[in-house]
Amino acid sequence: MSRAALVWTRRRRALAGYARAFAGNRGGMAGLAVLALIGLAALTAPLFVDDAALSHTGAEGGRFQPPGLDHPLGTDAFGRSVLDLVVWGARISLTVGFLAAFASVALGTLIGVVAGHYGGWPGNVLMRVTDWFAVLPALVMAVALAAVMSRSTLTIIIAIGVTAWPTTARVVRAQTLAVEARPFIERARALGGGHAHVMLRHVLPNVMPVVLAQTTLLVAEAILMEATLAFLGLGDAGTISWGGIIEEARNAGAVSSGIWWYMIPPGVAIAVVALSFTMCGRALEGVLNPRQRERP
Amino acid sequence: MSAPADPARGSAAGGAPVLSTAGLQIAFSGRSGRAAARAVDGVDLEIGAGEIVALVGESGCGKSTLARALLGLVRPTAGAVSFHGRGLVYRPRDLKAFRRRVQLVLQDPTGALNPRHTVYDAVAEGRRIHTGSTADERDHVAEALSRAGLRPPERFFLRYPHELSGGQRQRVAIAGALILQPEVIVADEPVASLDASVRGEILQLLLRLRDDYGLAALVVTHDLGLAWNIADRAAVMYLGRVVETGTVEEVLAAPRHPYTRALLSVLPESSAGEQQILAGEPPDPTRIPAGCRFHVRCPVLASGAAQAAGVADRCRSEDPGMLGGSPGVAQVACHWAHAPEPEPAEWAGPG
């Protein structure tokens, strides 16, 4: 068995083990199934949703039709099918949720690990900066950023990414401190490992469960934040997102006139996706911690 | 790795020491005005090629700090650590080169192995740090594992530490040190967390490595029996300083320092007369007593034997000084042991 084959065997076994353990977790599998379904719908949306059906002028349905055979979730103020809107909205909501969560988790992890590893004054300075960002009201900051920069999906991603990282940084730093106190860090240093070795080979893999859990929570949070910003009218007016649909519904007076099918579906979609990410995250956390996995 | 010129036990006196300290002091600064803790307070120690030295002392005496200082993990406040006669340079690159030749084995193998790394990764880690991933890495890992007594090594490659027994874990940790082919291993309580049946095996392994590969070792322990079984020389440490040193036979069979005698007297199979439970407060490195640092707890001083020998005042006021590290002679830092009368060898416990 050559070295490459050995590495491959090791990786394949590890992955198979993870997959088996994950499959044993019902909540995680349910969350994953729902996410796969929504993801598939979002990816294939252009195949069965016509562009014309989403335009304000070209929709063929009547105004505010209640759910029926033609339009399973009814229609909106412009006669568009709400089902089409929700499926299309998943594209923007998931994209923004993922990218913003990855941006903020990457930033938070970098700052948390560096602050925890070096400690001393560099760590303190980093944590004071983190505190400063943490006490800024995230929504106000995001609104301000979204207002100053050009109105685009990228602006929303940046606004969420910049405001959401302090929690991750704090959590990761705490975990880093706990890992750094363990004897294998001392062993790694005694073997001759430098800062980069300790941080990349020992600290990072051991904070990954926390980071993953944090990512899944943040995806949910970023989707909510995106919905909030879009609801406040700060989103890109040219795109359809779940928050944007709810905003349009409110503008159209859906609340007072009892047009529930206009508001409930995007709201439920937001809740279901957030819940699925959380369930997947919890399951993944258990799988990636080998000692936790050993428990029956 | 070179075999020692003279593999006979306890005869490394002739050669130059591999690893040594001179006047080593390590103080941890106290918080908010409290006094600094002088964990190591002047130690001269030498480890020769192919020699096993036991560093004995109770918890808190600074022996673990000394072990870490030997690897450059803790920077000394004063004094120096020397490797082959050259002082340690605390620059990252020099430390890295140094740590290829001196290795640490920790007390608790469960904590010392990253739970996310397989045995293969844990053993290969040191080699990857120093030479990167090479094509023959697998052979080196296999060889290190079999030298540490894990055979056949292939069976262990893909295991995780939590799937192994305590003794196997410690062997993995030792294999991880051996893969770098070090000249010296510093083992901090290597068997303290293992059960008795495994202890013997690990100690046997250390002895075999010494005999087969000329590996020198400093074994830090609180267990005198362990020191007796594997070490060539022993150094007894009390409150940051070595108070008695010599060959194991000299120190443990004919102890001269009252502290060593007290430690030995509480062993079940002791022949040192009745048991002495040391009185007084446990040593506190933030408040090291003046004079002999042991005098407040010294049974010889308390019993009046020191008074009879006419050294009681010196015990209270005069520091007996540091012991030289040279391995040839047995030394003791005790005024009473150096006093001409009464003959310390006839001493059979106080009153």
Automatic annotation (TrEMBL), chain A:
The keyword Nucleotide-binding does not apply. It is found in: Cell membrane; Membrane. Keywords: Membrane, Transmembrane, Transmembrane helix, Transport. It comes from the Bacteria. This is ABC transporter permease. PROSITE patterns: ABC_TM1 (PS50928). InterPro entries: MetI-like (IPR000515), MetI-like_sf (IPR035906), OppC_N (IPR025966). It comes from Streptomonospora alba. Pfam families: BPD_transp_1 (PF00528), OppC_N (PF12911). One of its GO terms (biological process) is transmembrane transport. Coiled coil: none annotated. Residues 90-281 form the ABC transmembrane type-1 domain. The chain crosses the membrane at residues 85-113, 125-148, 154-172, 207-232, 259-284. One of its GO terms (cellular component) is plasma membrane. It is a multi-pass membrane protein.
